[in-house]
Amino acid sequence: MTANQRLSGGTGYALERIEIFKGLEASEIERLSQRMNWRNYQAQQQIIGHQDASTDVYFMVSGTVRVILFSSAGKEVAFRDISAGECFGEFAAIDGAPRSANVIALTDVMIGSVPAETFRTILQEYPAVSMAMLTYITRLVRSLSERIFEFSTLAVKNRIHSELLRLARDHIGDDNTARISPAPTHADIASRISTHREAVTRELNDLTKNGLIKRDGRTLIVSDVIELERMVHEVAGD
Fold it and tell me: Can you give the residue ranges of the Cyclic nucleotide-binding domain (predicted)?
């Protein structure tokens, strides 16, 4: 399927994967799916450009995208990665302002989208979706507030620990280990915490020597998530 082809079927099933629609009946999800424009994007393809006037809202069915900005010197600053089940673009749909960042596909992705007017109509027609959207935005604001606090109070190595902990929590198993796959590159981590790749390399090497992390092919393994949490919370408390 090319980037401009629409899905020929199964759109209701695809939309069931979106977090804010999970409280709806199957019939309601099928009706919503008929309002969607479905599209595939290839890895490294830009979906949204910074300061664009577009206002569509996008719903991630598969793959991962990254929200980024570039400084005047060309430095990449990564805000967050968005994976299947999440959405993006809702800010411009709500306030009509230009896009606040670029969104780039990290992998091949499948996305459903609706114009801003349709999105606002959906929020009015489905109170459960509206409440889920409010919860989603609140969670996002809390996460970004936490990162701002870290930038203001933590040394670089402690910011690295915090970022690793965020990643580990999304992949933690029953045995207190986390397998993060694919492992983020050192440059990826650096762009998320406003530092340089060399600093990340040094700290990850130290954590490897101490046995807290190790690599297994393209997977990064955190061997003791509780200990990583203790390190982060100890510094935060100080």
Answer: 20-123
